[in-house]
Batch of 2 targets.
Target 1
Amino acid sequence: MARLTPILIILAFTGLSIACWSYLENGYRQQAQSRMEAEAGSVGTLIKLDLESGIPALKRMVSRWETNGGLKEREFIRDAENYVRDIPGLQAIEWADPDFVIRWVAPLQGNEAAVGLNVKFEKRRREALENARLSEFPTLSQPINLVQGGKGIISYLPVYTQSGFDGMIIAVYRTDKWLSNLLEKHWEGAGRLGISVHMNDTTIYEDPLYAAAKPDEGPHTRTTEVYGQTFSISVVPSSGLATGPYPYLSYQVAGALFLVGLLIAFAAYRMYPLKRQNLELRRENTLLLRQSRENYRAENMARTANEAKTKFLTGMSHEIRTPLNSVLGILQLVEKENLPADVAQKLASARKSGFYLLNLINQVLEFTKIENKTVEQLDEDFTVSNLVRDVHATFSAQAKRKGINFDYRFIGPEDERLHGDYNHIQQILFNLVSNAVKFTEMGTVSILARIHQIAEDRYRLLFEIVDTGPGIPETDLEAIFEDFCKSDAGINDGGGSGLGLSISEELARMLGGTITVESTVGTGSVFKFSVEVRTASERQHVDTESPVANNPIPPKSILVAEDNNTNQMIIREMLKMDGHSVVVVNDGMAAVEKIQENPAGYDLVFMDIQMPVMDGVEATKAIRSIVPAASDLPILALTANVYPSQIDQYAAAGMQDTLTKPIVQNELRAVLNTYLGASTKKRQDADTGTEGQLGDVIDLSVLGNLLDMMNNRAGRALIHSIRRNLQKDAARLRSEDLPTSEIVMISHDIAGLAANTGMKRLAAHAKNVEIEIEETQTPQALVAPLILELELALFELSKALPSLFTDEGEQKTG
C-alpha cells in the first residue's frame, strides 16, 4: 500500500485540478450568460418605459382637442413642438383628418414629405389606424418605412368630439435615432455590449458591436410587450466579457494544484523508506542491547538516520510550502476582487482545500516534533462552546454533502472561561471528528462535551465522538494508534496519512489526558478524549480576536527581501492593499545596501531566510550593525522553516519575530499591528474627553474599533443601523400585552447588539431581563427600566457622534 500512496496522491490531485478548472470555467460562462440576459431585460424595460412615458403627454393633446371641440393649427403646432422637444426620440407629431390625410406636422423641417400623405396607403399603417379608431385607445404600429427616410414606428391616438371621430394625433419615432439616443443615455452596457432590437422579425436597430461580435454561444434574447407590439432584444458579449476578468486563472489554479500534488507524492515516496529504515534500526537496537559495543554502534546509526529524516522533512517542508504559499496567496488576493457569488464560493473551497493540504504537511512535521520531544505547549484562555462550535463548523459542510446528521451538545458550563493548551486540544478533536465524518456514510456523527469541576480552579473535560460508521475490528483497536497504521475501513477509504490517531494519542499523553475507543463492527465507534484544564483568571484573559488586531495600520514604508517571484508578488499586493509603500529586493545583500543608502527610510523589514548571494540570517546581522536598535527598525523572518532551533537562530541574529509561510492576510496585519500599530493609543487619546462625560453608558473604544475597519460611508451606515434598531426595539417594548416570549427575544437582540457596540450598561440590563422575565409576575417592572436605559443609550450615542466623525465627514481614526 505504501508504494501506491504517491500514485494515489497524484491521481487525487489530478482530479482536484480538473475539478477546479471546470468549476472556474463554468462560473465564467454562467456569469456571462446571466449578465447578458439581465442586460437584454433592462433594455426591454427601458424601451417600454420610454414609450409609455410619452403617451400621457400625447393624451393631454387629445383631451384638449376633445374638450375644445378642436384646435387651431397654430395651437397644435406650438404644443406639438414642445412635446417633441421634451420627449427624446420623437421624429414628429402629426394630425391626420378623419380621412387619414396628414394636415399638420411639427416640426415641419425634415418632415415636409409627410404633409398631405394619406397614411392608409400602406397595409401596416392601415391596420394600426383601424385598430386605433375602433378601440378608441392608443395603438402602436409595426415597423414601417418612413416617408421622411429610415425605419420607424408610429403611435396612433384617435380623437373623438361630440360630432364623432375627428381624426388622429400621430407620434412618429425614427427607430435608429430614438434607440441610439435612449441606449447611450440610460443603458450602462452601451459601447461595451452588442445589441439588436427586432419587431415581428424585422430589425429596427443594430449597433456595430453586435454586427462584429462572434460569441461562442448564440445571442441572449428577451422580449417585452408594449401597446400590443412585441420587441425582441438580443445582446451579445464582447470577447473580454465572455472570458471573465481573469482568463487564465482556471489554468493557473489547476496547474498549481497539480504541482503541489507532485511534490507531496515525492515527499511520501521518500518518507516511507526512511520510516522503514528507522523501524529496522530499532529492532536491531533491541537485539544488540546485551553487547555494549554493538549497542553503541546501533544507537549511533539510529541517531544518524533520525537526524537525516529531520533534515529531510525540514527541507521538504520548505520546498512544499513554497508553491503552496503561492497557491494560497494568489487565492487570497483573488478573493479580494468583486467576483460573482458562485465563483467566490468555489475559490473559497479551493482555499480551504489548500489549507487542508497545509494541515497534512503540519501533521507530518508534528509527528517529527513528537518523536524528537520538541513539541511546545502554549496555554491560553478559551471556552468549550467556542472550541466545539469551531470544530463542528469545520466539518458541517462535509457532513451535509454526505447526507449524515452532525450535531453536538454540552453537559456542564460550556461558556465557562478555561485556561489550557487550546491549539493541541483542538487538534485532537479535529483528528477524531475528521475520522468520524470521513468513515461514516450514513446515520449520525455527534460530539458530546462534558465539563466537570473537580476543584476550585480545575475542570475535567470529556469529549465523546460517536459515529455510526463501519466500526473497527477488535484486533485493530490497538493498531490504529500506531504510526502510519490504518484499520480496514481506512485502507479502503484511501485517504489520510495514518498519523492522525498516533499524533492525537501522543498529544493527549503530553497534556496529561487519555484517548480510548469502543467499537462494534457494523454499528459504529465511540472515541473518548479526557483532559484537565485550569479556570481562567481575569488577569490571564486576553481578547485575541479583537478587531483592532486585524485592522490595517496607517501606511508605512516596508522593505521585503524575498527571492521567489510569486512570493514577492503576493506579499507586495497584500501590503499595498493596506496602503503601505513596499520595496522588494531579491537577496540579503541587496537588502543591506538599501539600509546603508537610507538607514531611516524604512519602518520594518521582512527577511526571507534562504536566498542567493547572502542569506537572511547574515543580512540581519549586517543590518543590525547599521541600525542596532530593534525599536528603530524591526526585522521579521519570512520563512517556512519554523523549528524552535531555527527560530532561536533568527532571534540571535537580531530578528524580532517570525511570519510563517504560507502568508495569511490577517496574520500579516496582526504582526504589523504588533510592531508598528498605534491606533489603539491614538483612539483612546481622541476619545478621552467624551469618555469622561459618558461614563460607562458607551465604551467608545469598542465602537471606535468597529469604525476603524470601515470607510466613512460604511461607518455612518453602521451608526444609523444601531440607532434605528434600538429605536425599533424601544417601540416594541412599549406595546401593551406583549407576550413574555417576545420580551425575551427582544431583550436577547438588544443584549447582543449593545455588547458588540460598547453599550455595557444596556447589555447588562437586557441580559438581566432575558434571564429573570420568566420568573416574575410583573414583567413591566423589568421592562420599564430597560426602556429608560435604551433611551439613555440613544441620547448618549447622539452626543458622541462629533467625537466619532470630523467636521469634514471623515471618521476619527488612529
Note: The first strand starts at residue 90 and ends at 96.
Target 2
Amino acid sequence: MKLAGTDPDRNFGLVYRDDALAAGPATHVLIIGVGAYQSSRFKKPLTSTTFSARALADWFVGDTPGFRNEACPLGSLALLLSEPAAGGDPRATYADGPVPRASFAASREAVRAWVRRINTHKDNLAILYVAGHGESLLSRTAFLLEDYAMDDLDATAGMSEVEQFMSALENAKAVSQLLLFDCCRSATNLALPWNEPFGSKLIALTRENRGHDEPSKQWVIAATALGEVAGGRVNNTTLFADALLSALGGVAGDPAEEDWPVRPGPLVDSISRLLELHRLPDEKPQTPGGRISGTFEISFAGERAEIPVYISMAEPENWPESDFTVTAVPGGETAFEGATGKPPFQLLKYPEATAINVSARRFGADIGRAKGKARAPAVFLEIRHSATPPPAVVEKLDPGRRAGPAARLLISLSGPVAIAAGAVAEIAGANEAKKSPKQVVVAIGGATPVDVGPGEHVVTLRTPDGRVEIQNVTVAKDEVLEVRFAMPASPHEWLGLATATGAVPPSPPPDPSPPAPAPGLESLRPRPSADVDSSAPPLWQPGFPRPAPPPVIPVIATIAGHVDYALGLHALADPRLAAAIDNDDGRLAQVGLADAAAHRFAPFESSTDDRPVFVAIEAGPRRNLAVVPSIAGRWRPYVLVDRQAPREKSMVTIIAENSIWSGLIGFLAARDAEAGSRLLAGGLQQAVIDAMQDKLADPIAALAAALIAVSASSPDLERRWDPWLFNLANWFPLIPDGPIILGRRLLMRASTAKQFEQAKARFLEGFSRGAPLYSLSADWLARGLESLPDEKALEAPRRAARAFANRIDSTQAFTVIRLGA
C-alpha cells in the first residue's frame, strides 16, 4: 500500500509496499528519473525524464493503475526524482510524501534495497526504469545521475555502466527481469582510455548466492540504438516512455490468450512501431535496442472494446497540410488535416473487424491510400505512393483430397539474395482470437506454403534486417492465396546478403554533431556548454569554386594469425588465405577473402586450420581485427568496410555467405533470440545435429545455433542441446566458443560448489583458446568470469576478458575487435 510521507522507507524511494507479498512471488519496481543536474555543464533541466518516471509510476500505483498480474501482483514500487527544487526541501514529492533525489549515493542505496526485495523469491518479477542523460563509449552505455560531472578528479563519477549493471543483475534470484533504459547512447565527449571503467558500480553480484538453477530471463531494452540519441517532449513524456505506456496498455497484448498478456517480445516490437510514427522528415526513426532472453508475462492489458488504428505516411514530409479521409464500414467517414509541428501520425479507434480505407490528398493531388481492418491488438496503416503488391489467388486446391474446409497461404518474400531459412512468419486467424498463431520459417527469394482455414488472417513477417511487416488477408475455401512481401533493394549487387541481414549501414548525416531538437522536443544527451564556440565558416559559399572532394581513404587488408585476450597475434599468416579489394564505391569497400584450405575446423584436430584466424583492416587512423569464418564449400566470408562509420561503431562487418544459415546469423547479430529460436524449431536445429552426426561438421553453424538456443532458453534445451554443447566443446579443441557456451549453460544452472567449479573450468578453457568466432561468446566469457565466486586465480582472466569484451562490436554476430584509442 502507499507509504505515509513519514515512513522511514521513503528514504530509499519506497512509495508503495504490500507486506503480505514480501516473501513473493511479486512484482518489484524501481524507477529513477533524472531531470535536474548539479553541474553547470547542464544549462537547463530536462522535463521529459521526470515526467516519464511519474507517468510510469502512475501506471503502477495511480488512481487508475494499468498494471495487472494476478500471478505476480505488485509488491513494491520505489521512485527517485531529480527535479528543480521548489522551496526549502530539495526533494520532489510523490503520493503525498517526499522521494529522494537521484544522486549516485541515493540511487545506489535504492538499488540495493530493490535487489533485496527481488531476491526474496525466484519467481518475483523485477522491473527497472531509468530516464536521464546518457552516453556511450565504444560498445558500452552509461546513464548519468544527478551529481555527474561534479568531481574534478574523477571524470566518470556520477555515471554508471548499463552493461555492468545488467550483468550483475543477471545473478539476482529473480528469474524474470525487465530493465528499461530511457537515455541517449551517443558517443561521449570524455577522452577516456578505451579500457577505462565507464562509471561506478551501483551493485556487484556473483552467482553463488542465487539459490536455484533456473536460467535468467533478462530483457534489457534501451530507448535507442547504440550511438543514437533519444528524444523527449518538453513537459511531457519521452518518446520511448510514450511508446512503452501505449504498448503496456494493450498495443503489445496477445489477443490469442485470455486477458491479453503483454510479454517482452511483442513489447519490443510494439515500441519500435510506435517510435517510428514520430519520425520527422529527414530523420531516422528512434529504434530501441537491447538484449533478450526467455519470455514471461509482464502485465495483462485486458480486452479492448475498440482497437487503436495508427495512420501514418511512408514519406512524413508530406504529412503537414495533407488532407486525409478515413472511411469506416460500419462507422461512416472521418476527415482530418495533417498538422504542422506535431508528430506525423493520427490515432483513431474503431470496433473489432471494422473495414478501414484511408486516402490522402495534398494541394488537390492524390498522394496515396491504405486499407485494412481493425484487428486486435492494434493496426498500423501506412500510406504509400506505391502500395504493397496485393495478395493474389494463384491456384485452387483439389476439394476431393481434403476433409472439411481448407485453404492455403503462399507467403512469398522477394529479396536481394536467396536464403532458405531467412525469416519467420506468424499467421493468426482473425476470427480465431483464442487460438495460438502458426509459426513458420520463410525463405528469402522463395515462397512458403501454410495451410489455413478459409477466412481472414493476420500475417506478421520478421526479417533478419530488423523489419517487422504485417498484412491482413482474406482467403476463400479451396483457394491458394499468395501473400507478397519484399525486402529493400540492395544499393549494389555485391551487397545483397549484407542488405538482407541488416549489415549495410545507413548514410550518416552530413554534420556529425547531433541536430538541435525540434520545437517542443528535448534530447536526452548532454550538450556542450554555451561558452564553447560552435561557429565555423561554411565549407563552400555560392560564387566561389566548389572544393575538391576529399580523397578516398585506402583500405589495407592483411591476413593475421589467431588472437589471444591480450590482443596479441600468434602464428604466421596462413598462406592459403588471401585478402583483396573486390568492390569499392568510395564509402563501402568489399574485401574478398579467398581460402584455399580444403577444410577448416575439422573435428578432433588441433592444427593451425582448426583455430579461428583474423584479418587486419586499416583505413586511415582506424584499425580493426575481424575473424574469418571460412569453411570451403559452406561459408564464404568477406569484409565490408565502412569508411564513414561513427566512432562508437567498428568500421568493419564480417559477411559470411551461406544460403541456409545467413538468416540465423542476422538474428544473432540483432540479439533476437526469439526469432532465431523459431528458425531452429523450423528445421535448422535438426539440420545441424544431422550434419554433426554424419561427420559433416559445421561448427560455424552449430555454434550459432547453440548461442541462440541457450539465449532463448529453448524448451528442449536440456533434452536436445545439452549433449551437443559438450560435443561442441570437446570435438573442436581449438575453437573457444564451445567451452564458453557450455560454461554459460552450466553457470546458469549452478547451485553447488562443484557445479560452479565445472562452469569455471569451461570458461577458463575457452579463455585459453583465444578470441572466439562470435561476439556473444566474448560477452558471455567476461560476464561468466565476473559472476563466479571470487578467488585469486580469476583476477587476471577477468580483467583480460572484460578488456577484450570492451573492444568487441556487440552489434555484430562475428567477432570484430577495435584497435587503437
Note: Confidence is low (pLDDT under 50) at residues 509-515, 528-540.
